[in-house]
Automatic annotation (TrEMBL):
Pfam families: ADH_N, ADH_zinc_N. This is Aryl-alcohol dehydrogenase. It comes from Neomicrococcus lactis. Its cofactor is Zn(2+). Residues 12-364 form the Enoyl reductase (ER) domain. InterPro entries: ADH-like_C, ADH-like_N, ADH_Zn_CS, ER, GroES-like_sf, NAD(P)-bd_dom_sf.
Length: 365
């Protein structure tokens, strides 16, 4: 069938909306009519080739839509199901079987390989095959074929055009907090970076009962906005030393911290702001090969723990319904982070995300 899709063709250039041919879903796939897709910072860094993902490719990995075809071997889904699409995983390696599919040993190939395991690509046009299956889905397309086991049914009484980001950015920040850091009620949490991922971490910290929630960024407007959503303190790290500020606010160090920037000095700040036996997590993506220096001599005495966290270490089928439930109870107002764009304005949405004016863009088809 024919479908319109946004194709990434070269680093730093706009996506091109083209009409592509979409092949038939394979036995383990669903064909989904995408209703809306979030845009994540990771789409931008792949367009710009921070990871060596082959171009041209249809990006997009925060898709939500309606099942329109069910592959021959797929069970548990029907035409018409409303779904949110999470990352792909193999389902049979030791990490998948241990309940940590976001650390699937095939995660890179399945999500950044931009083809099926058999080497085929779902999209093509006169120029040849176009990369598909980005994060198992390539959701910047009106119709796409997705790996069924990453797909989460969400019922029919939910605002589907809002839910795509639960499949990546929102799941990443909130999962890093709820699944990995697990702050105790009454504890302190610092989040470096107030983009969609950091804000989702902040909302999750609040939902966990943390009572000191410190947001760190260099953009004053974002810090002001964070205060309206639950930050108890904000630190502009362009103006003050965030480590000293956090130590002062917390009386010696913060219990839990999240770095959503992936900027080496910020990662070091996160580590240095932790209390004794504190726990920090990195979710911000840096170019492959990026190193961060910190003082292992002193830190040995601190007993701190540092985790590297992919996709909130979530099991999407279990975690996304929990986030929806928290949202319905008013305890996880991630909708406040969202701005909607029409699909035709996808490059404007990327630009608004890059300059910080939009926290979480969603393109609606
Ligand atoms: P974003 O660009 O909207 O937010 C990043 C924030 O960091 C911005 O507000 C920016 O002002 C702030 N920042 C940048 N440099 C800073 C500095 N030196 N000091 C303090 N703050 C600084 O991005 P996002 O959508 O929130 O995503 C955050 C990161 O998470 C990205 O790197 C993205 O690729 C990554 N990500 C990782 C995963 C994962 O599985 N680990 C999943 C999704 C996204
Ligand atoms: Zn993402």
């Amino acid at each position: 069938m024919k479908t319109r899709a946004a194709v990434a063709t070269a680093p730093g250039t706009d996506l091109e909306i083209r009409e592509l041919e979409l092949d038939e879903p394979r036995a383990d796939e669903l064909q989904v009519k995408i209703v809306a897709s979030g845009i994540c910072h990771t789409d931008a860094i792949i367009r710009d080739q921070w990871y060596p993902v082959p171009l041209p490719v249809v990006l997009g990995h925060e898709g939500a839509g309606i099942v329109e075809k069910v592959g021959a071997e797929v069970v548990g889904y029907e035409v018409g199901d409303q779904v949110v699409i999470g990352p792909a995983f193999c389902g049979s390696c030791e990490q998948c079987l241990a309940g940590h599919p976001m650390y699937c040993v095939n995660f890179y190939d399945r999500n950044f390989g931009v083809q099926r395991p058999d080497g085929s690509k779902a999209f093509s046009d006169a120029s040849g095959p176009i990369g598909s299956h980005f994060f198992g889905q390539s959701s910047f397309a009106e119709h796409t074929n997705v790996v069924a086991h990453g797909v989460v049914k969400v019922g029919n009484d939910v605002p589907l055009d809002l839910l795509g980001p639960l499949g990546c950015g929102i799941m990443t920040g909130s999962g890093a907090v709820l699944n990995v850091l697990q702050p105790k009620p009454g504890s302190s949490v610092a989040v470096f970076g107030t983009g969609a991922v950091g804000m989702a971490g902040m909302l999750a910290a609040k939902a966990s009962g943390a009572t000191t929630i410190i947001m760190v960024d260099i953009v004053p407007e974002r810090l002001e906005f964070a205060k309206t959503l639950g930050a108890t303190h904000t630190v502009n790290s362009k103006e003050v030393d965030p480590v000293a500020a956090i130590k002062e606010i917390t009386g010696g160090g913060v219990n839990y911290a999240l770095d959503t920037t992936g900027v080496p000095p910020v990662f070091a700040q996160m580590i240095n702001s932790l209390a004794t036996r504190g726990h920090g997590a990195l979710v911000g993506a840096a170019k492959l090969g990026t190193e961060a220096p910190f003082d292992i001599g002193t830190l040995l005495l601190s007993g701190i723990k540092v985790s590297m966290v992919i996709e909130g270490d979530a099991v999407p089928k279990e975690f996304i319904p929990r986030l929806i439930s928290l949202h319905q109870q008013g305890l996880f107002p991630f909708d406040k982070l969202v701005k909607k764009y029409s699909f035709e304005d996808i490059n404007q949405a990327f630009a608004d995300s890059a300059d910080g004016s939009t926290l979480k863009p969603i393109v609606v088809f």
